[in-house]
Sequence to fold (192 residues):
Amino acid sequence: PAADDYALVYKLEYSGTKLVNKINFALDVSKIPAPEYSINNRKISFYHGITRPGFKGSENILSALNILKRKYPLDVEIVSKNFVKPENYLSELEKHDVLVDQLYGAGMGMNTLIGLSLKKVVVSGIAKSNIGNSSPVFHFENDNIESMFQVIENVFLLRKNFGLIGQDGRKFVEKNHNPKIIAQHFLDLSNQ
Fold:
């Protein structure tokens, strides 16, 4: 399987059979812009794209983001859009500082990887046990709105470090999701 969500299902369904290790999604970052980050005393923009609101936990995410906006009205901007066209997606994400991806996913999907590649700070529902200590992704522990707000507020309070966090995110994708490395994993698997 190529994602933690699928790997969990395979383990449950095929517990008595051989399950190969998960292979990461591949993402070629060579054509994804990676501008240097500058805060310039402006509002920090949090973005949540809504494509599958129930699956992504959008209602809880937006509730937690709105608490942040009420607490820091002069410092925070919340943007949420439904179904951004794929050809406009990168330019939309470039406008924002933080991508709040999803609440219920167990692994890194393409949205998270694209955000990291753009040097964005990413918050997601990724369980820490599934991503290891090297991941630059901030994660929700559960779907309690107050707990989610604490995660988002902690991210906001790190805003002076967004440039470094973004660089770490880009490097993480380059190292762990490089298409040549992923292709080699598949070749190795086929030769077993």
